[in-house]
């Protein structure tokens, strides 16, 4: 798509991890802050340099207050495939756009950033000196400058074949950095209460951004576990609520997940996790509840539903059931007994999740969840569908050579009607969905084959 205005061009410097998640995150955040994703680039692949048109600097700053996929953003003043092209581009940039940042009362510094190549200090100074034609009238201040300018050089993606000259060179005024430090400050390694499947901090923030979580939203996680996704949403000012079928996890009881610790401590729970980060005021509650049998009155309660359902690998997929559902031959329990735990097919779990989301999300609210897939058999038609929900993005994270999980983001576009509850049964792809039910068996069959192959190789 053509750029709306060359004067509104910005350069995003992206982090080189979770590559598939970057574009949906940036699109979601621009949409959240009233912008639209407009770019002249056709693909975004693995390159860390993205040129975007953004309506205002305020929107650019708001974007960087949220993103964990981008490192920095710059107002782009010039761009070329060679130094000569860059200088020509800079000479064509309107002087009136430069002057507010170059006047005699200002202080500045120029930084050199290279991707996939290291320059000597002498080479960096040479590049800075070559910019003397720019109308800088202020004083250089290397410690606390008012304005920072950067030359960014792209030497491609192959560390084994680094070219002599860069593929692209950019020059811009630094605007803001992203929130990469959140990945470390919210690291699960430092968290008070964790479980076997606590979500990585970086992915938790990416999920909250895909869900367009904002201040005063109500965010729900029906498979809350130790609350990692609640923490990310609360960090962005949302009020958080969750349920889980596991009584011990919800109440912080039983065996600890940490090495060299046998039992969980008295203050090891979800509320304590939010308290650890100063987010307790956003904690609504977490209940012991069965996601397959939600006890909600009809209505729209949530601005976002963000969750990581169990896949049956490290955490079992369970639901409560009545005595009638117990296979014959099992000893009967008294009627007063708490309902027993039954297996919960993945296909049923995802359809229940989509139906629940269609019923309880506000219009425009988003569902963000992980879908495990057996890679050799995966097709896009296997992603569960619902008439009230529109697919926004579908990103892959590899788990092994033969399995992966896909981060699915959907948006509610239609009010729920009773007839929508079983609409998936009419889908041509319904039988494909059943393939999810054997994910656990396929996962472990692959593990068994890999172990056998490694043992055979070690014996040779």
Automatic annotation (TrEMBL):
GO terms for biological process: methylation; tRNA processing. This is tRNA (guanine(10)-N(2))-methyltransferase TRMT11. Part of the heterodimeric TRMT11-TRM112 methyltransferase complex; this complex forms an active tRNA methyltransferase, where TRMT112 acts as an activator of the catalytic subunit TRMT11. GO terms for molecular function: tRNA (guanine(10)-N2)-methyltransferase activity; tRNA binding. It is found in: Cytoplasm. Residues 9-180 form the tRNA (guanine(10)-N(2))-methyltransferase TRMT11 N-terminal domain. Catalytic subunit of the TRMT11-TRM112 methyltransferase complex, that specifically mediates the S-adenosyl-L-methionine-dependent N(2)-methylation of guanosine nucleotide at position 10 (m2G10) in tRNAs. This is one of the major tRNA (guanine-N(2))-methyltransferases. The keyword Transferase applies. Its EC number is 2.1.1.214. InterPro entries: DNA_methylase_N6_adenine_CS, RlmKL-like_Mtase, SAM-dependent_MTases_sf, TRMT11, TRMT11_N. GO terms for cellular component: cytoplasm; tRNA (m2G10) methyltransferase complex. Its main location: cytoplasm. Keywords: Acetylation, Cytoplasm, Methyltransferase, RNA-binding, S-adenosyl-L-methionine, Transferase, tRNA processing, tRNA-binding. Belongs to the class I-like SAM-binding methyltransferase superfamily. TRM11 methyltransferase family. It comes from the Eukaryota. Pfam families: Tmrp11_N, UPF0020. Residues 190-320 form the Ribosomal RNA large subunit methyltransferase K/L-like methyltransferase domain. It catalyses: guanosine(10) in tRNA + S-adenosyl-L-methionine = N(2)-methylguanosine(10) in tRNA + S-adenosyl-L-homocysteine + H(+).
């Amino acid at each position: 798509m053509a750029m709306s205005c060359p004067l509104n061009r910005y350069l995003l410097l992206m982090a080189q991890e979770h590559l598939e998640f970057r574009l949906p995150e940036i699109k979601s955040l621009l949409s959240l802050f009233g912008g639209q994703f407009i770019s002249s680039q056709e693909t975004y692949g693995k390159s860390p340099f993205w040129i975007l048109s953004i309506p205002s600097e305020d929107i650019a700053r708001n974007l960087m207050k949220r993103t964990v996929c981008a490192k920095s953003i710059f107002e782009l003043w010039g761009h070329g495939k060679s130094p000569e092209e860059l200088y020509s581009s800079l000479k064509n940039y309107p002087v009136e756009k430069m002057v507010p940042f170059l006047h005699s009362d200002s202080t500045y510094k120029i930084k050199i950033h290279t991707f996939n190549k290291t320059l000597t200090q002498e080479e960096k100074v040479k590049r800075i000196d070559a910019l003397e034609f720019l109308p800088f009238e202020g004083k250089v201040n290397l410690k606390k400058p008012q304005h920072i300018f950067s030359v960014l050089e792209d030497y491609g993606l192959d560390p084994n074949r680094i070219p002599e000259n860069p593929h692209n060179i950019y020059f811009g005024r630094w605007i803001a950095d992203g929130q990469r430090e959140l990945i470390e400050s919210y690291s699960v390694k430092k968290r008070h209460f964790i479980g076997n499947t606590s979500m990585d901090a970086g992915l938790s923030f990416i999920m909250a951004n895909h869900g367009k979580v904002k201040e005063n939203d109500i965010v729900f996680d029906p498979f809350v576990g130790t609350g990692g996704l609640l923490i990310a949403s609360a960090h962005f000012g949302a009020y958080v609520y969750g349920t889980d079928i596991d009584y011990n996890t919800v109440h912080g009881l039983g065996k600890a997940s940490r090495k060299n610790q046998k039992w969980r401590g008295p203050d090891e729970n979800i509320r304590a996790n939010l308290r650890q980060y100063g987010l307790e005021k956003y904690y609504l509650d977490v209940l012991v509840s069965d996601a397959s049998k939600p006890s909600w009155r009809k209505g729209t309660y949530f601005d976002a539903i963000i969750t990581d359902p169990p896949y049956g690998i490290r955490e079992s997929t369970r639901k409560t059931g009545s005595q009638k559902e117990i296979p014959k031959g099992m000893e009967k329990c008294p009627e007063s007994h708490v309902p027993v735990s039954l297996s919960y097919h993945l296909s049923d779990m995802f359809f229940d999740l989509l139906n629940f989301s269609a019923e309880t999300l506000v219009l425009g609210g988003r569902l963000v969840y992980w879908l495990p897939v057996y890679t050799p058999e995966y097709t896009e038609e296997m992603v569960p569908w619902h008439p009230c929900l529109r697919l926004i993005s579908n990103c892959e994270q590899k788990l092994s050579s033969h399995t992966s999980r896909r981060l699915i983001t959907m948006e509610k576009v239609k009010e729920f009607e009773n007839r929508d509850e079983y609409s998936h049964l009419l889908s041509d792809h319904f039988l494909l969905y059943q393939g999810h039910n054997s994910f656990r068996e396929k996962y472990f069959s692959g593990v068994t084959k890999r172990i056998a192959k490694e043992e055979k190789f070690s014996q040779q």
